[in-house]
Amino acid sequence: MNSPRAQPQPYCVVDSHTEGEPTRVFLDDRAPFAGRTVADLLGAWRTPEGGWSVPQELLTLVAEPRAAVATVGAILCKPTRPDHVAGVVFFNCAGPLGMCGHGTIGLAATLRHLRRIEVGEHRFETPVGSVTARVREDGRIEVDNVEAYRHRAGVEVEVNHRVVRGDIAWGGNWFYIVDEDRDLDLARVDQQLAHGVAIRNALERDRIRGANGAVIDHIALFGRPVSRDADSRNFVLCPNGSFDRSPCGTGTSAKLACLASDRSLLPGQVWRQESVIGSRFDAWFRTEPGRGDAIYPTIRGRAWIVAETSLLLDPDDPARASGWAELAEA
Ligand code: PYC
């Protein structure tokens, strides 16, 4: 008879969606995350090139068959500053994200659900800077994102024998932003995904990158809104080849930076961004003297809790990858 194999400790998670886009929060009260800060995780997961990667085992936990492909993981970490509630490291099944707007809204809704925070302002440390989430009485959550800016305007790239023109902008992740003439809708998701991937490949082929040689891993197509009271509809290709069901908090931030640079949107003016599934974020920005064209965007949206669960990785399961070596050695 086979003796029973030791089962690894389950990962406790809370799942939510923000305007349709899933977030899976990994709780910080048990190993391997208990007591870890953002810097601990990034240090453990540092790559020889100076970036950082996410262990395969964690990528497995935000991928099929345990999650929808669009899922963003959010690892809750110990804060290092007394005025911050927590740290957070975002990733999807392809690897790390800098910031994540929908994920921060999902994280704040999760912490409220767990009664760890209440209505009010809460600060979080992320790998790319501090962000603030304001949980409102009406359940909406506003995120004051990291600084956003347009890096280059009107950058042309040849895609399938056609010239595409777009702006390169930072909103917590790197985006190539294209204003599209065509309607963006769910019926054409396959074409939109293929177009996004072709643009991303063409940018890499031509070594067109963000500041300091950063790879542009998000492609955001902006088009006409469907709702009368929205300003625009978008389709955002994420690094894992999925599309954002929400209007993408960091993508909307990057778009705001471009609008601000073009003087097409003023500080405080509300921009209503619709996603390809028709969900929405309201967004606006402020500026600071001496910061040039950089803006400080705020995104407002809603999130709903959908599950509290623990994830199992059976050692015999072929859909599991091994390896906690990176963190264990930290
Ligand atoms: O909301 O910032 C965002 C985001 C990035 C990737 C998926 N969602």
List the helices and strands and how they pair.
Layout: E1 11-18, E2 21-26, H1 38-44, H2 56-60, E3 72-77, E4 86-92, E5 95-96, H3 101-113, E6 120-126, E7 129-135, E8 141-144, E9 149-159, E10 162-170, E11 174-179, H4 189-205, E12 218-223, E13 232-237, H5 249-261, E14 271-274, E15 280-286, E16 296-301, E17 303-311, H6 325-328
Parallel strand pairs: 2-3, 4-6, 11-12, 13-14
Antiparallel strand pairs: 1-2, 1-17, 3-4, 4-5, 6-7, 7-8, 8-16, 9-10, 10-11, 12-13, 14-15, 15-16
The protein binds pyrrole-2-carboxylate.
Pyrrole-2-carboxylate is lined by residues 21, 72, 97, 100-102, 238, 244, 246, 248-250.
Q: Over the alpha carbons, how many angstroms does the gyration radius reach?
A: 20 Å
* Low-confidence region ranges: 322-330
**Number of beta-strand segments:** 17
Percent helix? 10-25%
Q: Quote the distance from N terminus to C terminus.
A: 38 Å
**What is the CATH topology of the largest domain?**
Diaminopimelate Epimerase, Chain A, domain 1
Class of secondary structure makeup: alpha+beta
CATH homology-level superfamily of the largest domain: Diaminopimelate Epimerase, Chain A, domain 1
Shape: globular
